[in-house]
Design a protein that fits this description.
Shape: elongated
Number of strands: 4
Number of helices: 6
Structural class: alpha+beta
Radius of gyration: 34 Å
Order of helices and strands: EEHEEHHHHH
Strand content: 5-15%
Strand order of the largest sheet: 2-1-4-3
Length: 170
């Protein structure tokens, strides 16, 4: 008898699966020696009788998974080992890019910053905007329309200031 008896056992009789208890399987093995030669695979706390090809395929896949797990733990693995008929191992890589939660948090902080900046006096707001755009003048953080048109930072600041003043008047 096994250490942990399965809840159900499915055996093949006349090309149909029949459900029996594990105790009944043990009893049949005692009475009929041919039952000891039957092949079973575990499935969700149950065991199921299968033919030799299915048994071999099941344990081949299980052994491969265990081997890959062992190789992963020992940091000795190549992504090409995960290649199969449906996809390549490189397709299984997790994107290490920016997490969407981080993007949401950043957006929330930027929205809050805009509200706080709007509470400042117009002179302080202009100073912050000027420092921000001057700091980013040489970087690729310009607005997309700046790159297309070729605007310089001062012209952009004047345009932004004009639009902001018009909005504040309204």
């Amino acid at each position: 008898m096994k250490k942990y008896a399965p809840r159900k056992v499915f055996i093949l009789e006349n090309n149909e699966y029949i459900e029996i208890s594990y105790e009944e399987l043990c009893y049949r093995e005692e009475i009929d020696p041919s039952y000891k030669d039957k092949l079973f695979i575990p499935l969700h706390g149950m065991i199921m009788e299968v033919d030799e090809a299915a048994y071999r395929d099941f344990y081949r896949a299980k052994d491969r998974d265990e081997y890959l797990t062992w190789r992963t733990r020992h940091k000795d693995i190549s992504y090409s080992q995960f290649d199969d008929d449906e996809c390549s191992g490189e397709d299984m890589l997790i994107d290490q890019g920016e997490d969407f939660v981080d993007r949401i948090m950043l957006k929330m902080m930027v929205d809050k910053l805009r509200l706080i900046i709007d509470m400042l006096s117009p002179k302080e707001q202009e100073l912050i905007r000027a420092l921000y755009f001057i700091r980013n003048a040489g970087q690729a953080l310009h607005r997309p329309h700046q790159r297309r048109v070729g605007m310089d930072t001062r012209r952009h600041l004047r345009r932004q200031g004009y639009h902001r003043n018009e909005l504040q008047k309204a």
